Structures are given as C-alpha cells and as structure tokens.
Amino acid sequence: MRVSLVALASLSLALAAPSRGVAQPVRRPPVAPPPAAAPSEAEVRFQRGTDLFNVRNFEGALVEFQRSYELSSQPGLLYNIARTEVALGRLADAGRTIERYLREATDLSAERRAEVEAMLAQTRSFLARIVVRVDPPEARAALTLDGDAVTDALTDEGLAVGPGRHTLAASAEGWQPATASVLLASGDRRDVTLTLRRAAEARAVEPALPAPDGAPGRLVIAAAPQGAVARVDGMSVSLPAAE
C-alpha cells in the first residue's frame, strides 16, 4: 500500500513537471479590457448638436451646443455656437460669440487665430445699425428688438443687427407702447424714434340722480385714445378721448 502511494505521487509530479528540453509557454489568464467610460452629458449634447447641425436643424443645434458649453466651459464650443448663429442669420450674436472665442481660446496657433479673425471681419461686414431714441426720455422705457429685451440700446453707436426686417418696441408703465419696423441692408445705419403717449385711465361716473324703477340708467365713460371702443352689454360703443 505504501508503494502504491509513492508511485502515484511520482506520477503526479511527472505530469506537473515540464518535459526536459521543451520550453513551456507562460500562460496568463486573459485580462478583460476596462469598461469604456460613459460619455459625459457635455459630450452627449455636443454630439447631438453636431447631428442636428448636419440635418440643418440649426435652432436645435444651437441649444445643444450652448448647453454643452455651459456644462464644460470648453472654448472650442464657442466656435460651433458662432457657426450655428451664422446659419440662423443671427450675425450680431455670431460676431460677439467669435470675439469671446478669441478671448478664451488662448492656445490657438497664429494660423488658426488669423483664420478666425477673418471670419469675424466677414461677419461684421454684413451688419447694419439702428440708433434708437425714445421720446420722452423720462418715460424710462424698456426696449425689445425682435421680441428680445435689449439693454444699452440708447447710445450713439446703436444696435448691431443683421440685414433684414427688424421690429423695435418700447413700453413703460403709464404709457402706451410704441413700435417701429425697419428693413435694413448690410452696412445701413438707421435712426428710429419711438414716441410714447400717456395712457389715460378709463373711469365710470355714476349718475347724479338715480333713475326711476324700470327707466334706463346712464353710464358715462371717459377713455383714451381717441376713437377707443368699449363693449356695453355686448354692443360696441365708440368712446371719446379723456380730457
């Protein structure tokens, strides 16, 4: 019994030991590649913006590029945003975005910076300007351009806009709003004055003496502007201007 055990042990060693004179390859267990990191939200939005731009959905592309920039602060995205603004015809916005790109992208080569500066010059060449005045100045009106609020518009330099039709509006509490529409070509400069008129409050005056039962009452209304129309019991009534 003891011999058999020794013999079995020798056999096991023989099987485990490499054959003399024959090199045995070193076998290592396969190493699985590390899992790919999930793309960040900024990367996902950049790719979506690129895909939308390629199918000419420029509004959607602009939103995605802007969101990607908000998340990552990568200056290169400003170039994509500017390209998209140009495609949308928002040349004044594109010019400001290119200027920002040139400020933030400090690692541009001289060749690349010259290329972007040429793009900026070309974009500016298409701009027109609107010099806005509000009368009276004490109205402290809020201004909008094509529906978007604008600040620092009341300057001699005016507002930079792309060619085409633009609508300006001024509004202030206690004043009737004023609007103006202008059609501009590139390089135009137009002076526009928005004149506000005070808005009179409509008021109802009770009759001095009550009407007898069953007799029609009398309602006196004063309102502005001249030619205003009110509805009384479903009927249109022309109103005089208030004194």
Describe what you observe in this structure.
The protein is of the alpha+beta class and 243 residues long. It contains 6 helices and 13 strands. The strands form 5 sheets. It has a 4-stranded antiparallel β-sheet, with no helix packed on it. Strands 4-1-8 form a 3-stranded mixed β-sheet, with no helix packed on it. A hairpin with a 2-residue loop joins β2 and β3 (148-150). α3 (58-72) packs antiparallel against α4 (76-87), α4 (76-87) packs antiparallel against α5 (91-104) and α5 runs antiparallel to α6. It is elongated. It starts with a helix and ends in a 5-residue tail after the last strand.
Mind sketching the topology for me?
Layout: H1 2-16, H2 41-54, H3 58-72, H4 76-87, H5 91-104, H6 110-125, E1 128-135, E2 142-145, E3 148-150, E4 159-161, E5 164-171, E6 175-176, E7 178-184, E8 189-195, E9 197-198, E10 203-205, E11 220-222, E12 229-232, E13 235-238
Parallel strand pairs: 1-8
Antiparallel strand pairs: 1-4, 2-3, 2-5, 5-7, 6-9, 10-11, 12-13
Q: What Rg do the Cα atoms give?
A: 38 Å
User: How many angstroms separate the termini?
Assistant: 132 Å
Largest sheet: 4 strands, antiparallel
Which parts are unreliable, with pLDDT below 50 for 5 consecutive residues or more? 1-19
What portion of the residues fall into strands of 2 or more residues? 15-25%
Strand order of the largest sheet: 3-2-5-7
* Count of helical regions: 6
Structural category: alpha+beta
Order of helices and strands: HHHHHHEEEEEEEEEEEEE
Approximate helicity band = 25-40%
| Count of β-strands | 13
Mean pLDDT rating: 80
Which geometry do the CA atoms define?
Answer: elongated
